[in-house]
Amino acid sequence: MWDPGIRMRIADLGATLRTMLRRRRAQLMLAIRVTIAALAALALAQLLNLPLPLWAVLTAVIVTQMSVGRSLKATFDYLIGTLGGAIYGAVIGVLIPHSGEAALLAVLALAVAPLAFVAAVNPRFSVAPITAIIVLLLPIMTHATPIVSAFDRVLEVALGGLTGLFVSFFLLRSNAHSLVAEAAARTLDRMADTLGELLTGLTEGLDMDALHRIQDGIGRALVQMNEVGAEAEHERAARLSAGPEPGPLLRTLLRLRHDLVMIGRAATGPLPDVLREGLKAPLEHAGRAVADYFHASGTALLAGRTPPPLDALETALDAYAAEVGAVRREGLTRGLSAEAAERFFALGFALEQMRSNCGDLGRCVAEWAEKPETPKRI
């Protein structure tokens, strides 16, 4: 019999592993899809007796992405870049003799330089210079012609791309629609944590380095969500998914980020002592209510449920506004410096904007619900 303490540790380890797998389910599914795509591409390349199966396997791995939309774009871009590089490399190899070392160097420069420029202008052709190099140099080792080499490269890349796309579409499929909801939920959780840190700065102060760190974290989250949103649009355009447009949700989160930026500017220094005592409690209450609404909205997005009610948020912000009104009636703002008064009124404006944008967030969450209630487009 095992010691009860050992059994408990094993049970805790199992629970931790299950939690990690649930959180990283999308990444785990991607790893499985990539592995299947690589094996399938190698088997098909060997079955068709392709001269360089490595190229098909690498292409399958590259184009197998997190979502169907991203895989579709990667496959199209890779095929376009390969086709362009193969055609250009074959034309250069056929039209310009390059039997000597000096001639080979000149032909290689003539092939790579224009394609590298095109790839710098349009990243879709980033693989074109590599393809041209292979088309020109591989015949030296295989004694094939540049045209045959170009044809083989296109065939290998097409096989790998189609294999990766097939695996992405039919095996353990992951749509960008669900990834947008996950990215939005993560962004809302980060916004909730950020709001708490910023409001703490209004009572204790916040240095600029900490402020930039906080705001940069939200910026990175929104960039990631924008990328996933573009993939969702590719899926919608190809009729691979029928979810709601990600644009309204992304624009709402951007507006909420702007509200946090305004609050951050107000939090570069603590509130004046004459205001802090009366406003501290209602401000903390309002911050908790907004943060709770962010967390609940993210949870609703992930679960496909209708948005949480706004009642607690509205009540908390009304209480803060009432306290601000009392402060102004007592004339406590008259003795403030211009800088302190500006930060104080900017805070109130930002919170009111956040109230409005939280209402828009609720409408977006309703659109993303499995059974949306009167969806409205922003």
Any overview of this molecule?
It is built from 13 helices and no strands. The chain is mostly helical and 378 residues long. It folds into 2 domains: 29-170, no CATH class; 176-368, Methane Monooxygenase Hydroxylase, Chain G, domain 1 (Up-down Bundle), CATH 1.20.58. Helix 4 (68-95) crosses helix 9, helix 8 (176-204) runs antiparallel to helix 11 and helix 10 packs antiparallel against helix 13 (338-368). Residues 371-378 have low confidence and may be disordered.
Which helices and strands occur, and which strands form pairs?
Blueprint: H1 4-23, H2 25-47, H3 53-63, H4 68-95, H5 101-121, H6 128-142, H7 146-170, H8 176-204, H9 208-237, H10 247-266, H11 273-303, H12 311-329, H13 338-368
Helix pairs in contact: 2-3, 2-7, 3-7, 4-5, 4-6, 4-7, 4-9, 5-6, 6-7, 8-9, 8-10, 8-11, 9-10, 10-13, 11-12, 11-13, 12-13
